[in-house]
Structure formats: C-alpha cells, structure tokens
Design goal:
Length: 278
C-alpha cells in the first residue's frame, strides 16, 4: 500500500473485504444450527452411537446451559486476547510493523489457512465436535486471523486502532446485553441477515471501484451494523431458552467461532470507517 492516508484507505477497500466470511454461507445448513428442543421441537440424536448420547437427551437443564455458555465465552476470550494482543504488537512495535508490511505475502497464506479451517469446523460435524482436534484447528485459525488482522491494522495510526478497539468492545458489550435482555427472537431472522451479507459484499465491490469517501464510510458503517446483528443472532443461538433455534451442547467450538468472526469483522469495518474518513 502507498504511504499516504488516502491510498491506504482505497487499498484497504480493494485488497481486503472483511465481509467475506465463508462460514455464513452454510450457516443454515450447519449441524450446529437446530430447532430448540425447549420449544417442543424434536431434533435428531447428536450421535448414532447410543453409548455416546441418549436419544432422550435435551439441552434444557439450566446448569448445563450455563456451563455451555461459560465454556464458549472462555474460548472466545482467549481468542480475542491473542488477536488483539497481536494487533497491538503490529501497531506499536516498529520492527514487527515493518516486517508484516514488507512481507504481505504472509497474509495470503494466513487467509488460505483461515478459509480452510473455517470450512473444516463448519462443514464437518465430527471435526468440530472431536477434542482435542477441534481445539487445535481453532487455535490455528485464531493465529492465522491474528496475523491477517494485525497486518491490516498496521496500516492505520495507533490512535485509530485504539479507538476502533474501544468502539468494538463497547458495541460487543451493548449488543450482548441486548441479546440477553430482549424478548424478541432474532434467531429465525438468520436468512435475512445472509441476504444482507450478500448485498454488503456487492456494495463493497462497488465502493472499491468508485473510491468515494462517502461510500467508504457508509460501507464501513453498514458492515459494522450487519455483523452487529449477526452477533445478536449468534448470542441468542448460544443462549437457547425461549428462542426458536439454539446450538447443541457439543457445538461449543462452532459457537465460539461464530462470535469470534462477528467481533473481528465489526472491528475491521470500524477500521474501514476511520480509513475512509481521512
């Protein structure tokens, strides 16, 4: 990317589209995405082997659900600490900053790893539910994403990155609290969000071609809102309860991955707003 601020923003629009997260393309068909048994819906057994799980098992006990939520948030917290820690290194440490900017081909390898691991965890039930393999794959994905996001963040001023982090944290906390408190069920709106994501991708292509500051800012704002709504949906899928759809207790890796991608994409789109508004 060029050294001047405007060219950085333009290249960010063209060279990287944070909206392209492949796991959403198959979210509705994922084995982790099922009707909530608490509303009386009968669901398939999670395993064919009755020794692994009883046919009458339902993820309804409050203690089990709370344990599931704690596990998901523990994994998510570690992922975010690793990613934002590496972002801070890429932005504040000059040697690392120069290295990642001079070796941008490493990011291409990182994105290849990200796409591969996301497909493995979202499209193959046994891979996502089998420990310790699922933890290893998620760890590899997190490290690759940290490298990709850190390299993108290194193109911005430290103040912009810190502000973007702060806004991301505030949005995440606010939307999570909203998801816990609202009586409205967003889980069955997942299809509408997928349509919105497709529209966002095409709008990003258009904004990248025209290089308009207004379009760039609007694109970043729209992307942050779309993934903010995904965060609400994915949080309610994790909570279960009165919601129409919920995650299985075995899908803690998939749930953590979903929330992680939502938050990271919000952060990248907020960075896009700062870059385009220069």
């Amino acid at each position: 990317m060029a050294s001047n601020a405007n060219s950085q923003s333009g290249t960010f629009n063209q060279g990287y589209n944070p909206g392209v997260t492949p796991y959403y393309a198959g979210a509705g068909a994922s084995p982790a995405y099922q009707q909530n048994p608490e509303l009386g819906q009968e669901i398939p057994k999670p395993h064919a082997d009755p020794s692994v799980a009883s046919p009458n098992f339902q993820f309804t006990e409050k203690s089990l659900r709370l344990g599931f939520i704690r596990k998901v948030y523990s994994i998510l917290t570690l992922q975010l600490l690793v990613t934002f820690g590496f972002v801070a290194l890429c932005v504040l440490e000059e040697n690392i900053k120069r290295f990642v900017q001079a070796n941008y081909w490493i990011v291409l390898i990182a994105w290849a790893i990200i796409f591969t691991t996301v497909i493995l965890l979202t499209c193959f039930r046994n891979v996502a539910r089998t420990s310790p393999g699922n933890y290893i794959i998620l760890s590899v994905l997190t490290l690759a994403m940290s490298l990709a996001v850190g390299t993108s963040a290194s193109l911005f001023e430290a103040e912009e990155v810190i502000m973007a982090m702060g806004i991301t944290v505030a949005m995440t906390l606010a939307l999570t609290a909203f998801s816990f408190q609202t009586k409205y069920d967003f889980t069955y709106r997942h299809g509408f969000l997928l349509i919105g994501l497709i529209g966002l991708i095409f709008f990003g292509m258009f904004a990248g071609i025209w290089h308009s500051r207004v379009l760039g800012v609007f694109y970043g704002f729209l992307g942050a809102m779309v993934f903010g709504m995904f965060l609400v949906v994915d949080t309610q899928l994790m909570l279960g309860g009165r919601h129409k759809f919920s995650y299985s207790p075995e899908d803690y890796i998939f749930a953590a991955l979903s929330l992680y991608l939502d938050i990271i994409n919000m952060f990248l789109y907020i960075l896009q707003i700062f870059g385009a508004s220069r």
